[in-house]
Amino acid sequence: MFTPEERDAIKGFLGRDPNRTEEAVFSVLWSEHCSYKSSRPFLKLLPTEAPWVVQGPGENAGIIRLKNGWCAAFKMESHNHPSAVEPVHGAATGIGGIIRDVLSVGARPIALADSLRFGPLSDERSKWLFEGVVHGISFYGNSVGIPTVAGEVYFDESYKGNPLVNVTCVGLMREEDFMRAKLVGPGNPIILAGSTTGRDGMGGAAFASEDLIGDTEEKRPAVQVGDPFMEKLLIEATLEALATGAILGIQDLGAGGLSGLGEMAHKGGLGAEIFLERVPLRVPDLASWEILISESQERMVMCTEAGREREIMDIYHRWDLNAEIIGNVIEEPVFRAWHNGQIVAEIPSEALGACPVRNLPRKEPAHISSLAGKNPTFPDVLWDGALLRLLSEPDVADKTWVFRQYDHTVMTNTAVVPGPADAGVLRVKGEVFGLSLTTDCNGRYVQMDPREGGRRAVCEAARNTVSVGAVPLGLTDCLNFASPEDPEVLWGFAEAVAGIAEAAASLNIPVVSGNVSFYNQTETHRVFPTPVIGMVGLLEDVSAACRAGFPSEGLPVILVGKPGSLPGSLFQAVFSETCGRLDQSDLYYERGLLQAVLEMHADGLLASCHDVSDGGLLVGLAESCILGGMGADLLMSEEPEFLFGEGRGLFILTTSPENEARVQAVAEKHGIPIARIGRTGGEELVLNGKGLSLSVMREAHGILEKEMES
Amino acid sequence: MKAGVIIFPGSNCDHDTFHALRDVAGFETEYIWHKDTSLDGYGLVALPGGFAYGDYLRAGSIARFSPVMDAVVDYVEKDKGLVIGICNGFQILAEAGLLPGALAKNITRRFICRTVELLVERNDTPFTSYYQKGQVIRMPIAHSEGRYYLPGPEIERLERDGLVVLRYHGDNPNGSLNAIAGIINRSGNVLGMMPHPERNSERILGDGTGLGIFLSMKKALKI
Question: Which of B111, B139, B171, B174 to substitute to test the interface with A, most A CBs within 10 Å?
């Protein structure tokens, strides 16, 4: 289970061999999932600082300053393996965990975004997983009362058997309320609050650190069971408890369970002593190691000011939750667990977070250059037929079937619901400003060229953010890859992280939190490398949030930016095969493009704004027509590359005829190409005189609903 | 006369309803804990949406046994003021027998969150006087158990007595009998509705037509 080097390191810390309980603790906290032992050296490349960053990676969630003392705390996390064997509870508990992470830094969770990937819908199990995951998100998220305002769903053969379920949670907080996950002040009590501790989720972190190979049904006990009702009470009670000021450090019990206290102690330069018999149990006779590493959900651990513990416990009790003093902070930098009068584990605090880095070999996979060297051929297709085909691709199709199952309006902050714009938008009560949320990644790009794919994921999230009129302020990433022990996978990982780092640095968007999920593979499939980016942006005036649909008749339709190219495009994947070389992002240009569009928003010039992504320009235009219930009459090239190319930044805008010249002037000022291609109006998308009706496009776009309800 | 919003464990629209009442409609508003037993001093009691007690059994079936519900029954019987139940609040009022009928699983068997159109059937109630009769208003629904049901002869009576206040307009999203979205009791002091007026009471959230529900109550209470 441990490498010889790890075994030596453990012995070095303990001065002896670990006992069985200690071994269990190390096996979880030194797992890939918890320790980032294979990924840590690469993650250092990511830019994490900016003047508005309150907290970068290292706490339970990253925090950025918005305005007027308000901050956004956010993080994305994966729950891929649990969702692969038990989709409903796997997805549900993924939501629960990330909500508690955001709660842990002292923020009220206010929004969720779900980034999902499955095998093709023609595969019955993939369809079952899709349905189950959506149900799990709906079951848990709706009950805890946090709106799901953004997200994406992709389908690809590579995700067959190993779906990706990545959840982003955003919290809102006052800057002064920031809490850290550390123990403070020797003698202060440690309180465990929330649910009871049971055997569910036993070794979940370790499960997340291996392949999905063999009988995955056996892994069901490693999947936690979520109780959103308990979570809702825990959120309210914890926020109330935090407001007293008596809590000095707090953390949720996620991967690693109670043994995470060791790291909290280490952060405070202290130790902790806990008494396992005081932990409220769900089932009797749990062994010491089980109590220590159980990942039972809906629990928080905190240290409070001595003498005020009763005040805190009373709050939890009023909410009918357990709250017990299970130990206290000690001066000696050691994590010591007692069970019925015996010391069952005694580990230096520093040891639990000090798993040695694994320097694994990397090698460029052969498919990269062979794909790049291959020249694609394309069948002769007519634009209207091709468009309808692309609109009915599940990746592009209308996702209303998914979003309608998520409560996206609870909390009464949702200014733009999922669907009508490129990002979800939330207001902050009592303020003029608002914030945006989006998640993005196209795994196909990353598979072809991980570095460029990483750049594009950041650029795409930034474009979606800018599209609604928000300034990108920070990002979180969830890096989903296959086994890092495969040199080709690790090479791709390093490249993708480098690409994210380049784009984030160039666009000045700090990476404030993140998560790595390795071992996303089965015997037969290995997921596309999928570094999902979640991004938060700031809108100065939330009431001005811009939508993607054509809003009214007679508006000039304008393209700002550069048309894309076919390698890596959905068009290529559908009508030919994925190959060729991805165009390399010009990040200097990208920055100018984003600035130009933001300036147009700030000047109030835009009536609609939509970023061109999956499917290319014509798909983007069709989406603007469908969303607005409004046709358009357009004159432009019918070259497939122009109509269906992807990858370079391109926006579809509408403006009033009076403002057209001003839009033009802003683009020129920033050196960004701009072209007017036609006007909105009518019931058809007309291209060079030939029309395609809205109803036909709508029908093609509505395929998901039909597929799932038939 | 102040408004009170009951917090059941698992309520999740309590803050939203509080915000709409106090910050938007201008009521003096307080929270009422589910273990409270007195509703003295309140001119309006709101049962908010959510998943009271998790709703693992049947929506509202456990919440009706909360200590505060005895007080709500007493409050209604003695006509001490108005009671509005929104979404889960409607389910609880129905379970408690303060409103006729039941809210069954949506006909789609799925949770539905979307904005719907509602037809105002009556504007002569304390909850709807701000609207015109026949006006179409908009509000989000967000529920998995919202299909209104009442056995045959009783539904006829409900309709005959004019207790249907709001009806889904256009389509019937959850399969409710007669597209019923909101009803009042015979005494006219209790309204139950599945759609969420608090989620469309401000222009940033939609066309704002949900606010009329709160302003109507304010007018009825002469605040």
Answer: B111
Annotated catalytic residue B196: yes
Q: What is the pLDDT of residues A249-297, one digit of tens each?
A: 999 998 789 999 999 999 999 999 999 999 999 888 899 999 999 988 8
A646-670 pLDDT tens trace? 998 999 999 999 999 999 999 999 9
Q: Do B55 and A320 touch (CB under 8 A)?
A: no
Structure-derived torsion over alpha carbons of residues A102, A470, A113, A653, reported in degrees to the nearest 10:
180
CATH of region B2-220 = 3.40.50.880
Burial track A107-133 (b if 16+ CB lie within 10 A, e otherwise): bbbbbbbbbbbbbeeebeebbebbbbb
For chain A, the domains span 546-710
The pTM is what?
A: 0.96
Give the domain ranges of chain B: 2-220
- SS3 assignment, position A601: helix
Question: Using one digit for the tens of pLDDT, what is the confidence trace for A449-490?
Answer: 999 999 999 999 999 999 999 999 999 999 999 999 999 999
Q: Which residues of B touch A427 (CB under 8 A)?
A: 204
Instruction: Flag whether residue A637 sits within 8 Å of chain B, measured between CB atoms.
Output: no
Q: What is the pLDDT of residue A208?
A: 62
Q: Which of residues 177-206 of B touch A (CB under 8 A)?
A: 196, 198-199, 201-205
C-beta of residue B99 within 8 angstroms of C-beta of residue B151: no
Q: What is the CATH code for A546-710?
A: 3.90.650.10
What's the pLDDT score for residue B61?
Answer: 83
Q: Is B214 on the interface with A (CB under 8 A)?
A: no
